[in-house]
Design brief:
It is built from four helices and eight strands, in the order H-H-E-E-E-E-E-H-H-E-E-E. By secondary structure, the chain is of the alpha+beta class. It has one domain. The strands form two sheets. It has a five-stranded mixed β-barrel. Strand 2 and strand 3 form a beta hairpin. It is globular and about 45 Å long. The N and C termini lie far apart (94 Å).
Length: 182
């Protein structure tokens, strides 16, 4: 009986030792992402003010069961000179992001994507977006999500599909606007 108890205690101590081995803590997701070669935020510049740019992702993500459509939006400081509304950018951050909505963060690196202009188009995609912002209804949207910008060469018209990224339960209504290619 004593041998059985001794074997049981040895097995129990072995399992406790195995289960309590020190596990190295993982770094925060932000620190891990900073090491990554892929951008932390990819999106359109929709506003410029006070030497910062509002960058909004065109891709939604689900944050919980009631908020199935959430768009990342960050006021980015430390932007390079000459950035313009309508440009599609890749952003890497230095340090943590503010947890407001839109969030806030300092860019460590910004790469402006060169989106090829359609062959028959006069305007580029970023010019079309800037032209759309001349519309008061568009420019008054706080967080403007650009879902798609498409050029129809037969009619020489651009179509912008967009949403106003508000924090709300359920789907967010999509709108579209046509911009003549002039």
């Amino acid at each position: 009986m004593k041998k059985l108890c001794l074997v049981f205690l040895l097995l129990a101590s072995f399992f406790l030792n195995v289960c309590t081995n020190k596990v190295e803590p993982k770094q925060s997701p932000i620190a891990e992402t900073n090491k990554s070669s892929s951008a932390e935020l990819v999106g359109y510049i929709t506003k410029l003010e006070n030497q910062r740019a509002l960058v909004v992702s065109p891709i939604s993500r689900e944050i919980n069961q009631t908020r199935k459509e959430f768009y990342d939006a960050v006021w980015v400081s430390n932007m390079p000179q000459g950035v313009e509304v309508g440009q599609y950018v890749n952003v890497w951050f230095e340090g943590a992001l503010a947890t407001s909505y839109p969030a806030g963060g300092k860019a460590s690196k910004v790469v402006i994507s060169n989106i090829k202009k359609p062959e028959k188009a006069i305007m580029s995609q970023d010019e079309v977006i800037r032209k759309a912002f001349l519309n008061k209804d568009i420019s008054s949207i706080n967080i403007f999500v650009i879902n798609e910008v498409v050029y129809d060469d037969k009619s020489a018209v651009w179509t912008i599909r967009y949403k106003s990224a508000i924090i709300a339960d359920g789907p967010i209504e999509e709108h579209s606007m046509q911009v003549p290619d002039k």
